[in-house]
Amino acid sequence: MRYPLLRAGLEQSSSAQASSSTRLRQHGGAGALLLPPFQRCLTVARRDPQAGSRALRLNSSRSCRRSRTNSRISSRGISSGAVRAESAPEFSSTEKDSKAGNPRICVLGGGFGGLYTALRLDGLTWPDGRSPQVTLVDQSDKFVFKPLLYELLNGGVQPWEVAPRFTELLAPTKVNFIQAKVESIDASAETTEDDQAGSITLANGHVVEYDWLILALGAVTRTDVVPGAMEHAIPFATLEDALKVDQQLRLLESAALRSTPQIPIQVSIVGGGVAGVELAATVAERLGPRGIVQLIVSGDTVMTESPEGQREEALKVLKSRGVNLVCGERVKELHETSSYSDDAEPRKLVEIELEDSSVVTSDLVLWTAGQSPVVPTTVRAGEVGTYGLPLADKGEAVTDQFLRVVRYPNVFALGDAACVEDADGVPLPATAQVAFQAADYAAWNVWASVNKRPLLPFRYQHLGDMMALGAADAAVALPVGDITLSGPSATLLRRAAYLYRQPTPQHAAKVAFSWLTRPLADVLSS
């Protein structure tokens, strides 16, 4: 297998799989947290497509979600994708595979949604020798396991563990990888033919043709909506962001040691969601009494969409580490200023002006507020003008129950760039957990589309909520009851779950060896 699945149950029949998933849903617990029923069915599907199809239909037999209406589609302009290719190998996709019956599948975006879909597609059994040509396109050369980024700031993980190279992850597969930025896609609406569905233009002019397209470009942190934020704040969403924050903290820590008397390091974090809270807790733990950490929240409290028990645990940790909460305030503007200590050494500071005209002064500003989905510009060959994919209110591509973009049957979308609903028609949150589960369905539905089999409606199963609150602290809300684990036990459970979620068994084994060979005490106290 090219991606981690629990070995138990691989030899079970489809009916046993359905029974097992029922027991897991009834009892919940750590087992349910690690293994969604769909993956066990998908294992059967890879070995026996017909039996797998029956098992998957059993797993998806809940009531269909409500029909989407055009009133949800935004009339706003398209949220453009990246506009300039960093690097891309010479790549020319011809009609050879399409004419021979081998589908050309292009996956845009190498996050949880895109990479995991590509790996699933490569692992499926394709009848009649119709093995697809799968191409993954991403502007970075590395996959980023974002839930572990925070641990780069406290030494809990190493960069290669969090961000392995795509070439390394895809080496055991037949998936092609292109490092490039996407400029536009040419997709014809109402397409029903399997071949010649469209093409992707990269910013360097290279063109990749496809029969089936999967959009999973994710979202970007918006620092351009507040004057001065782009110049004076650092987002925390990529490996480069995390390494830059770590470098800035090291510089501030070094300067603080040289100053007489020592001046506290002031760090402000904008955004009261899970990302902002995780970042505040981690930075406050790292700086200890040397720092003053402030968390600026636009609402009345933090993590308004999280389980109550998890939110309470997070607030308790923030309070214990002296994090100052500034609630009910929006940032109006950021600008740079300077001050001088007793030894006349200049100190660059950032002033954060709030809407009530108060000012918060900081050495470092970290930005986690505001996410914008990345949906590339859509054009039609031979026609003048730009034609956008249907967008929801927040700018995501509107999908049907099978994860297909509405009116574009050859285009699927998942992850932060897609508006995906649950069985009751309620939009699901843009989390790694949703993208991870959607990857299974997207891969299966592309397989089913190519092979003229019934598609399966996406059924999300909530497996709990996990967040880091420091080197040896975490808050894990279990999917059953109102139970929240905290402390070292939650940290170990979180790490075990994320080890299982690694994209390939090879990388998971290397990460596990790295973690186990370090003294456990160092891991928990780092």
TrEMBL record:
Pfam families in alphabetical order: Pyr_redox_2
Region called Disordered, residue ranges: 1-23, 52-99
Phosphoprotein in keyword set: no
Keyword set includes NADP: yes
Superkingdom to which the source organism belongs: Eukaryota
GO cellular component: chloroplast
Listed EC numbers: 1.6.5.12
Domain FAD/NAD(P)-binding positions: 104-439
Cofactor(s) of this protein: FAD
Catalytic reaction(s) noted: demethylphylloquinone + NADPH + H(+) = demethylphylloquinol + NADP(+)
Keyword vocabulary terms for this entry: FAD, Flavoprotein, NADP, Oxidoreductase
Gene Ontology annotations of biological process type: aerobic electron transport chain; phylloquinone biosynthetic process
Biased composition, class Low complexity, residue ranges: 12-21, 52-62, 70-80
A Gene Ontology molecular function term of the record: NAD(P)H dehydrogenase (quinone) activity
Family matches, as InterPro entries: FAD/NAD-bd_sf, FAD/NAD-binding_dom, NADH-Q_oxidoreductase
Family from the record: Belongs to the NADH dehydrogenase family.
Name of the protein described by the UniProt record: demethylphylloquinone reductase
Phylogenetic placement of the source organism: Eukaryota, Viridiplantae, Chlorophyta, Pyramimonadophyceae, Pyramimonadales
